[in-house]
Design brief:
Layout (H helix, E strand, L loop, with lengths): L1 H16 L14 H4 L1 E9 L8 E9 L5 E8 L5 E10 L6 E7 L2 E10 L5 E5 L6 E5 L6 H10 L10 E3 L5
Antiparallel strand pairs: 1-2, 1-8, 1-9, 2-3, 3-4, 4-5, 5-6, 6-7, 7-8
Length: 170
Amino acid sequence: MYRLLIVTLLLGVMTGCSKPYPPLNTVNKVDLQKYLGTWYEIARYEHSFEKGCRDVTATYSLKDNGDIKVINRCTKEDGKRTEAVGVAYATDPSGSKLKVSFFRPFYGNYWVLILDKDYRYAVIGDPSREYLWILSRTPVLNKNITEKILKKLPDMGYSLEPIVWTPQGG
């Protein structure tokens, strides 16, 4: 009985100490037709499914049923090229909040947080702040644009410390 009480108290303390995030805003509108094509990963929060990846790209194309086909490619540390094929769909009329899956029936959030008016770069995340990607239409993103993005991230609840810069072109 005491163990249950202690566990309950510990869970309450841990939950109470977790950092509350402000609501995560997305861009007002994403024209999914303009968003289609290949994006280069400039930076990310590291996760097991991308551990050690370089030359990372994501290619989006429209399927006949209106869903989006997603092909993520990367080169692993041993030089082996890998590919993961998934599907995404918009969850709201703005097109800025999507669900994506590489292992159905499990879907994750893919929220467009920052998007260049000409669709040259984008920042993708999710409300938990556990996932973050900085994407560009080119393998290298202009330093001034990168700095502008990095200045905005803390106000969105994202720490800069976990960011891993993705080597491209090697």
